[in-house]
Amino acid sequence: MPAVSLTVNGNAVTADVDPRTLLVEFLRxxxxxxxxxxxxxxxxxxxxxxxxxxxxxxxxxxxMLQIDGADVTTIExxxxxxxxxxxxxxxxxxxxxxxxxxxxxxxxxxxxDIVNRKGFDLEDRLIREELExxxxxxxxxxxxxxxxASGAAAMGGKKAAA
Amino acid sequence: xxxxxxxxxxxxxxxxRLLRGGGRYVGDMTLPRIAHSFVLRxxxxxxxxxxxxxxxxxxxxxxxxxLTGADWEASGFGxxxxxxERMRKDGRPMYKPANPGLVKDRVRWVGDYxxxxxxxxxxxxxxxxxxxxxxxETLPSITSTAQAAKPGAPLVWDDCENNIIFEMSVGDKAAxxxxxxxxxxxxxxxFVINRVTAATMEPRACIGDYNAADNHYTCYTTLQRAxxxxxxxxxxxxxxxxxxxxxxxxDIGGSFGMKSSITPEVGLVLLASKLIGRPVKWVSTRxxxxxxxxxxxxNVTDAELALDKKGHFLGLRVTTIANIGAYAQASSDxxxxxxxTLASVYKTPAIHVxxxxxxxxxxxxxxxxxxxxxxxxxxxxxxxxxxxAQLSMDPVEIRRLNIIPPEAMPFKTGLTFTYDTGEFEKxxxxxxxxxxxxxxxxxxxxxxxxxxxxxxxxxxxxERAAGAGTEAAEIRFDRAGTVTLLSGSVTQGQGHETVxxxxxxxxxxxxxxxxxxxxxxxxxxxxGVGTGGSRTAAICGSAFNQASDRIVDKSKKxxxxxxxxxxxxxxxDEGIFSSTKSNQTITMKELAQKAVNQKNVPEDMDVNMxxxxxxxxxxxxxxxxxxxxxxxxxxxxxxxxxxxYSVIDDVGTVMNPMLLKGxxxxxxxxxxxxxxxxxxxxxxxxxxxxxxxxxxxxxxxSDLSPIEVExxxxxxxxxxxxxxxxxxxxxxxxxxxxxxxxxxALSPLGIRHVEMPATPERVWRAIQESSAQA
Lengths: 162, 774
Description:
Chain A is of the alpha+beta class and 162 residues long. Chain A has helices at 23-30, 87-94, 104-118, 124-130, 142-155, and strands at residues 3-8, 11-16, 49-52, 55-58, 71-73. Chain A has two domains: 3-77, Ubiquitin-like (UB roll) (Roll); 87-155, Orthogonal Bundle (DNA polymerase, domain 1), CATH 1.10.150.120.
């Protein structure tokens, strides 16, 4: 089995993997980082979004062999357990941007990616368009959109209006 | 009022864990020596199984066992629980289809259970399943609800004639016939309420773990009701004493009714675990969820409303055919309990419903957010709009004319419900104001100038929540005086932990950091029923309320004993006990530490201050509200934009406004989804066409606009907290409101109604047909 080396949440990881191993399987089954979820098998729902080399990627359709040497950040890597929540995580809490919590890690990883690409001042309509690849069944998105706008502002060092 | 008291928008206590990726859904769990499994499903809607050859699969790498229908039959395990109580018109009991873990000689839907492969890895199990040779002889199939009971339709079960599984007649037929006989106007419409799926973001999953040494099973699974689930699973499937089974729910990633059934996978992992002596895990993929999750709604309904000259409703007659699917899962027959919503908030004196429930070669159907409530609200509210159009009346004014006034409470409706409280006209006026309905015509004109069609829809709705039943709560103090709350109900995302901590912390003056919350484990929680039918806030909330009261009573006696004063001299305020007689104070936490020492406790009392409650509610409550929806349609493409959505809800006392709005908005969007896009579709061979998120349209953020929710709380007296159910209300009101707005937008073209889902294609075709006629 081929060997693959990655950095995951700052830690170097090397493993021999079955060539068909997906990144999401590796994270969940090998590293037991179960915060990254699997919500579909057609790259539609975004529950599996992680950052690879600083960009959002759907880990359910990424083979381990495609990303040898990459730097991966998962939801667990945003804030250490003894640290305060990342501003985007905190915004989701403050605005009740989650209910069952299953789509949430992917939503947050996508949200941070939106901020990285579009800046700290995000219009609601832009957020809604940018969330095309993330499905939530519980919240109706209303509070997710509010949370992302607020979290983006907080990441930029501003406190957004609630 | 304390920092966390009920009525405040306290952020959720469960969130930090979920936000950090620390959720523990069943799919996240593992056990030592765990094996993985794969279900081989039927590729045919209807076929005989001529033979199954598992030889190659059993010899495949990593395979531990391969089970078929013959193995299930030999196992001694029983069928999955099923609907049992309904009757047929001729007085016979309902037809009762067998529902084993694996079928033996016939498959009845694309997704039916043929074989179960267990292997060291999931890949090995899936690979081995491909090696199973099944010879089928295909049979004609029926998936259409409308056609299922027609003569000549293929029979799903050979001995169930006309595919009719049960029939019901509800309401006063004679009075309804009399109302129609004297009516000045009769308004009729044929409605098709399409089939949808819950599509919870977390797919179903389970782990079976049999321990031979003490003959005990543990089942980790996705569910809504841990204790009742255990009861049914132990009695009907495993046929063992309930105490030999532990059921554990993980975090549940949404359910909406779908996960509350015991499905064959659960029986199969438990059986396989027993056979191979290792824990066995099954996790659904999304594709498999589309093939195997219970689906919902799916009826065809003819409804007619009788009115007098002035527009007063005299009677309502509804005839409906409901599709149960190929089997009859437990609770698949529960929806008629919500027919009462057909009466809506109107004085209609006579109502009659005639139901035919049919079997088809489709997935089982079962409750999904509202379970008959949204369907009923949709039928009556759309019919009222159509009546308004036919009588040239304003849709709001015809509602106003017929609405039940608050002074009529309690009001016995013309069907099955008796409402206790509600200010329906005020809800409507508040919703119209929130939706700025008075400025609508101006906005419509502005849209028209841009070549667009704008419409406004109004729907009133009311539903039954928290029907008679019980729920358990325990507040357990440890030696350090910190607390564990144990809930008999199970959250799937509603935020139970938060509202129960709010309630208990406020009543007992505890700090939330000193309070832990546990649910969904039958070994930890002493008793329970579970979530469903918008019952938890009312019943489980009342149980925590009662248990808190019991602790305060107990604590006062202990404080009085310690301070050698009368109980009547003990005051309890903001978590501190005091007595003017002894001039002493003590906090709840400190007192709980003292209460583990028997010398501090009166001799006639147990040491430790823990208390529990199994609270009984005898009478349902009736959450209600009004939704106002504004849409704009592009006649060139048929696309619909929801521009504005406003809700006034009355769910009684509001425990946490932020969480309540979250529930309402989430429900609204599920209703919007069904009206605009969601559709489970089968082709003529019974193959599922909409089998992934690429074919089954789910509402996305870009499909929606902000949704405004405000409350008009009228507390109910049916429980001490005054709360009414909130889980389903949003979905109930949304289906009619959105559909009504679409019809209103298209009304200048002479279009009265567009069936769900009102996809761009369907709307565009309706527009083309209307202009062809014009």
